Here is the input.
Amino acid sequence: MIILSNNMTRITLCLFLLLSIKANAQVSTKKTIFDRWDQNGDGKLTKEELPQNAKPNFDRADKNNDGFISREEDKNFRERSGRRQRNGSRNQLNNDRINIKNDIPYADTENPRQSLNLLLPKDRKKKILPALIYIHGGGWKNGNKNQGNVRLLPYLESGEYVGISIGYRLSGEAQWPAQIHDCKAAIRWIRGNAKNYGINPERIGVFGTSAGGHLVAMLGTSGNVKELEGDLGNYKKMKSTVHCIGNFFGPSALLEMSKYPSRIDHDAANSPESELIGGALQENKKKAMNASPINYVTKDDCPFIHVHGTDDQLVPYNQSVILHKKLLENGCDSTLITVKGGGHGGFRNDTIQKVTEKFFAKHLLGKELQIGKREILIEQPQK
Here is the structure.
């Protein structure tokens, strides 16, 4: 028990207590939720590091689909969540507008990866609508088709598209060309069920990010390549061709990736690309070439739009540059949006969304729109 004998003692003790409280407050606020969850202290969060109640939000927070949540992505997700709480959940708003059918098998198997999500607008502008498809990223070894539901919402809100998000087998389960076999089987399923869902089978557009960008580029360049069709599903006689491609920072020439600055040694045996084909890229050049969209470009390929940041440290910017160039050399319709200072996704420029919306409206809705230049340079806003 402390007995205070005079006013000076009381004052001294009060000051000590106030300073202690302030110091403790500083310590407690310095360690954020991100820091507490970041168990290995590497400055990024894996799904395994998240508490159970936060894991369902992982794909929504991982905006660039690299399999990690950066500190900036965590901050942006919390800000978006706060806005949704203030203004009402966007997903809840769209429940009244969109009918979502999840986990539809497309390959006549029970493998949950070989399934798709179908998003149908309730207020259709026309009875028959074009299909806009999303293919997720994650280095071919992470991610899932549920990431596509949010990505497709801006298009579905117009009532002018049917949306589809495709899942596929990851590299930990199956090696190349299993992934493109799955995507092509999904396209054939869509054509085989077009009448059931009011889809125009002659108006199918696809976009994807990172590894998903690679897969959509493969769809856009290998429509008539028999060895990449596979033998999956009940609609083998249907075509797997598509009508336009949105390639967001996807690999296009696997053997060229390590020639440019990157945080990843793409030639290493444990790189995402090497794990995709089942061996180190430079030791398996034929496989690497078979998995590279640039090697399938022909004059008959559909229109492309590419979006890539100059400071991308996971998939070098040059990957989109050389694919764009190869398409133009073959007389194809190709537009490259260069994001100066942009990294691996997470772009903060409304111009990108506006141009890509115009691109799909032109090629899927038949609207008389001009994209403008073949090469568009925009700045990534400073943080």
Observations:
- The CA atoms of residues 84 and 231 lie 44 Å apart.
- The chain is about 35% helix and 15% strand.
- The two ends are 54 Å apart (CA to CA).
- The mean pLDDT is 88.
